[in-house]
Amino acid sequence: MQRILFILLIGFTPIFSFAQSSFLKEAAAKFNKALITKDTFLLKQLLHKHVTYGHSNGWVETKAEVIKDLVNGKLSYFKIDSKDVQWTVINNVATMRNTSNISFELEGKPGELHLHVVQVWLKTNKGWQLLTRQSTKFEK
Question: What pTM was computed for the model?
């Protein structure tokens, strides 16, 4: 009986991993879209209460600051194009690394950045939430 249970558990592991990966990819895509559309309802769900959102210039925001700066127009995102995405998932923690091309406006000044980005996602009772994000500039 134990052998059958072991075989069943091993058989379902890839399905579970694939499902988690799918939910993570969906959460990351929703997050980028929420930044662009300034969807504060979705951002409140996807940002962990202890999030640290680090920008390439050293500026670090809390959950409240990310939402406030989008709503008041201090920061607007127009395009977030992520490539070379790599996920690592260990239990309820996931890291995502990618390169991103971002079009934005900061305090009325338009800009474009090419970034290396790392995000740490945490699976909570609310689903996958962004816990940490940090980026650094690179030349194309």
Answer: 0.84
